[in-house]
Amino acid sequence: MKKHKVYRRAAPLLLAFAAMVSGCAFSGSGGGEEAGTGQKEGGGNSSVSIMTWNLQALFDGVENGNEYDEYREGAGWSNEKYSGRLNNIAAAIGKIEPSPPDIIAIQEIESAQVLKDLAAALSGQAYVWTHFAANPEMSLGLGVLSRLPLDGIKVHSVNIDGEAAPRPVLEARVSSDGGEFALFVCHWKSKLGGEEATEAARRSSARIILRRIRELAEAEPELPVIVMGDLNENYDEFYRRSGAAISALLPDDPRSAELAGLYVPDRDGGALADELQKDFFIISRDKPPAPRCFPQEAVAFYSPWTGELENGSYYYKNEWETIDHFLLSRQLFDGAGWEFENSALADYQPFVNSGGHPAAYNPRTGSGLSDHLPLLLFLSLRGS
């Protein structure tokens, strides 16, 4: 697998913030250990592989009025092109290393029928469980395919100032011999219209998920949680914006905690803040994730972008971006049940072009796959 230099525009700012308070900046076991691939042993559920992939506007071949202009009959779009694209996507998934994933979360698909058509194109992979979610009158939604049983399906609408966000959040419970874990499949609001102008929509999505995670933690404190999908925000978004504003993904850093009004400078002697985070996720490098600069009761997630993953999943204006995510709760690092094993990018052909960037789909020629790279997550089952 080709490796690239990690893009870290924020390193000088991170070091400056880290020097402010000892013991309160990013640290821990976030980097580079060799891990297993998540392959199954003995035919049981000793491991699970999960993929998230934004498929760059997968429309079917029937025009209903909600399609983008380039996917209309007048632009040359057809059932034949749709079938060809489905087959190419299925063939590419068959080349995922080391094997096609057990669960696939997909963003930017038109309908439940498209999801079923993709499962049919992947007929040899036995993706028996499928679920789709979309807001009415919107062009695209999101969904999940799974070999493992899915239940507890919930679709969470996201409202901003009385209006629905473009896409909901799909919650699913994965059942297996090793226990259950919860997935939140997301496609947050893009930055089209400006970073600052659209931030409220992404923070509203984070607020909905945080509220639900706290409900689950109250009822099932040991349930692992994975937030996944295209969040349209980099894991180091705070630093890319010079640490000047609160974003939906915040580092466990003294400056971000101070801006949020939740800074705890002295864990032993400092009083906890009166209010926990409402609409942002705290990104930790620690395994298990635990807040250092925020109150202990705050919800923190581990991001593989801080350790295992390199470069980015999306290439925009000659720069890599890390907008596709797996965010992992502490229960995936406690030594029992389902545990984080590794994470990887599908940064090889046919997912990349000759320049090593995502092989974006061209609806006119039918070439390419998507302008996003798939992300992979591997879990393994540990003894209690």
General description of the model:
By secondary structure, the chain is an alpha+beta fold. The protein has a single domain, classed as Endonuclease/exonuclease/phosphatase (Deoxyribonuclease I, Chain A, 4-Layer Sandwich). The chain is built from six helices and 18 strands. It has helices at residues 11-18, 79-93, 112-121, 195-219, 237-240, 254-259, and strands at 47-58, 103-109, 129-133, 141-146, 150-156, 159-160, 163-164, 169-174, 181-187, 225-230, 249-251, 281-284, 300-302, 314-316, 319-321, 324-328, 337-345, 375-382. The strands form five sheets. Strands 3-4-2-1-18-17 form a six-stranded mixed sheet, with helices on one face. It has a five-stranded mixed sheet with strand order 5-8-9-10-16, covered by helices on one side. A three-stranded parallel sheet has the order 11-12-13. The longest helix has 25 residues, at 195-219. It is globular. The model is unreliable at 1-23, 25-43 and 268-274 (pLDDT under 50).
